[in-house]
Amino acid sequence: MAEDRSPPRRRWFRRRQEKQPDARRRRWPIRSAGINFALGYGVLFLISATLFLSFIWWSSTNLLNQHVRAFIETDAQELQKRWVYGGAPALGDAITDRLEQNIDDDALYLLIDRHGRRLAGNLPGWPVAIKKMNHFYELSIRRYTFTTPAEFKAYHLPHGFKMIVGHDIRGRTLLSTVITRTLIWCAVMIALLAVGGALVVRDLFRRMVGSIARTASAVANGDLNHRIALTGSETDLVAETVNTMLDRINRLMEGVRQVSNAIAHDLRTPITRARNQLEEALFSATSPDELRTAVDKAIGDLDHITGIFEALLRIAQIEAGSRRSAFTMMDLNQLLANMAELYEASAEDAGLSLHLDIVPLPPLFGDERMLQQALANLLDNAIKFSPPNSTLTLSAHPVPAMPTPETAAAEGTPAGIDISVQDQGPGMNDADILRAHERFFRAESARNTPGSGLGLSLVQAVTSLHHGRLTLTQAHPGLKVTLFLPLTQEAEQNARHTISTENPS
Amino acid sequence: MRILLVEDDPTVRSFVLKGLKEAGHNVDQADNGKDGLYLAIGEKYDIIILDRMLPGGIDGLNILETLRGQKNNTPVLLLSALSDVDDRVDGLRAGGDDYVTKPFAFSELLARVEALGRRGHNDSAPETSLTVGDLSLDLLSREVRRNGQKIDLQPREFRLLEFLVRHAGQVVTRTMLLEKVWDYHFDPQTNVIDVHVSRLRQKVDKPFETAIIHTVRNAGYILRPTQD
């Protein structure tokens, strides 16, 4: 019961999944894959440029700060030495000297005495913020007409004197301006690149999809031979799938065309014959017996036509693959033994001996009735074309898997089963062998034997249904028809098993 | 036998009707599903021949399912233009006893109708032996005797003879033999059945004065006990 309920639930889940992209599409208005692609790349570039420039900014300011601090420290040491040599006046002179020689105008000094009076320096007074000695401060100060950041350090001097050595770090502002400007330019360039990229990518996408769309529309307009050119790009995956699909459609269409041609040509002949016979009997029969014979023959022709119809329908049905519903695990040994038993008598009646060469076979997943029919057609054919007193061989044996190094371990599990029917009849020439499985094809030498030319087509269809292979080879003398049926259908069988447990009907 | 024929095509209906009457059966007919269902439920028949596709909203399968739903086990032979194996399986699963696809030879239909009619009668306890004229089959020991003389048969030959004996006095067609004795559902191009029957004749008829297995032209075979 739980399994019964699971398919609807799964369907509901799928519906919910389907809804989600809709909602997302509503929130994100851009549909073009190319533009989305370019936008994504643009944003990514912008983020990486920002990160990159931030890092440059961070490391350069760090370097600048260290440089400034080192400069301040050495300068202060120098000045303290001056104090040692000449006291406050010497230090005041040195500071004034330095300020005069400072072309960049970025040095800042202040020297005050114990009463807080300014003795030298270019700072107007002791900044309120500087409270601790021997500690770096970063402050904004007003110089002339502008405000600028500066690094300061205050020092104690003997006798209550205090000194501030500082450095204008306006350079950092400059650097920040440069970096900001770079960032803006970067953004502009990235935007341009993104727009250009969007156009290129969109064009690329369009071209990729265009080739598929062109083929699809050509096919829609009836040209089934059109195929998508493989370019080596990622779309080849789609292209190959579509091409395979088109091949299959083409083959099916070809089948339909053949059937309609066949109906047009090959069914007309027996219908005409029946009609002519009846008409002739109607006009020229002189006795009831003659009339009866004509009607009898006409019925025979009509039965023949019905037979052709049945065979055509069955082939079409098998080729559509709808008959796989009847697949089961089956015992080929039993099937072959029964078929041999059924046909052994007809072979003997035709003066032939049926030789069996059958080794025990593993069970096969397949359609028993279809295989019976296929085998019956092969045996019918062989008996029909065998000369008297010849031998007919029905053989079957497992085919080992290709002995590649990978599969060597799996030796003993056969890849499939070969079933072959060999006669000693006239055989077929190579050209005929190539056309043998075509519907209504009859070799020139077989024109005068009864038959519709559909037997091998049916065998071919049954073989394809089992994913097998039908091969015709010359046996000198005679013809050998081999059915190869692969055993590697466990997956399919499992799939079927799941389906059958889901709907126990 | 009393037979109900439900078939909408007037040509096919009159053809089958005429044939069945000539074979000595009493036939009622209906040309649509409604009348067919009414007759099938209201009257007692030995066998019902049902066309699968009928006008009037009730098709052959509906009638069949209604009958079986009412525990009515009258043998039903389905007649249909649907020749698919799947369609055949559907028909038999719905409770049909046999299936004949159009176009059909009348002899085939008649043979199957008579075989079905016979089956309706002797659904009694399983027999252990069958006797027709001077021929007797022991179903347990698989021994065949004619005129007291033992005949050695292969297992398949025994089943073939058993089928003929069970339908003694009735025509059995080649298709019926292929289906019922071999359980095959294909149309062989060669005369496989004829060969098997002729082998059986070699053993059952040839050593004796009179033949009991006869060929019916354009139809099949019949096992008729010797008149003595």
From TrEMBL, chain A:
It is an enzyme of class 2 (transferase). Keywords: Kinase, Membrane, Phosphoprotein, Transferase, Transmembrane, Transmembrane helix, Two-component regulatory system. InterPro entries: HAMP_dom, HATPase_C_sf, HATPase_dom, His_kinase_dom, HisK_dim/P_dom, HisK_dim/P_sf, Sig_transdc_His_kin-like_C, TCS_sensor_his_kinase. PROSITE patterns: HAMP, HIS_KIN. Its EC number is 2.7.13.3. The keyword Kinase applies. The chain crosses the membrane at residues 34-58, 182-201. It is found in: Membrane. It holds the Pfam family HAMP. Residues 262-489 form the Histidine kinase domain. CDD domains: HAMP (cd06225), HATPase (cd00075), HisKA (cd00082). Residues 209-254 form the HAMP domain. GO terms for molecular function: kinase activity. It catalyses: ATP + protein L-histidine = ADP + protein N-phospho-L-histidine. SUPFAM superfamilies: ATPase domain of HSP90 chaperone/DNA topoisomerase II/histidine kinase, Homodimeric domain of signal transducing histidine kinase. The keyword Transmembrane helix applies. PANTHER family: HISTIDINE KINASE, SENSOR HISTIDINE KINASE YKOH. This is histidine kinase. It comes from Bombella pluederhausensis.
Automatic annotation (TrEMBL), chain B:
Residues 127-225 form the OmpR/PhoB-type domain. The keyword DNA-binding applies. Residues 127-225 bind DNA. The modification 4-aspartylphosphate is found at D51. Pfam families: Response_reg, Trans_reg_C. This is Response regulator transcription factor. Keywords: DNA-binding, Phosphoprotein. Residues 2-117 form the Response regulatory domain. InterPro entries: CheY-like_superfamily, OmpR/PhoB-type_DNA-bd, Sig_transdc_resp-reg_receiver, WalR-like, WH-like_DNA-bd_sf.
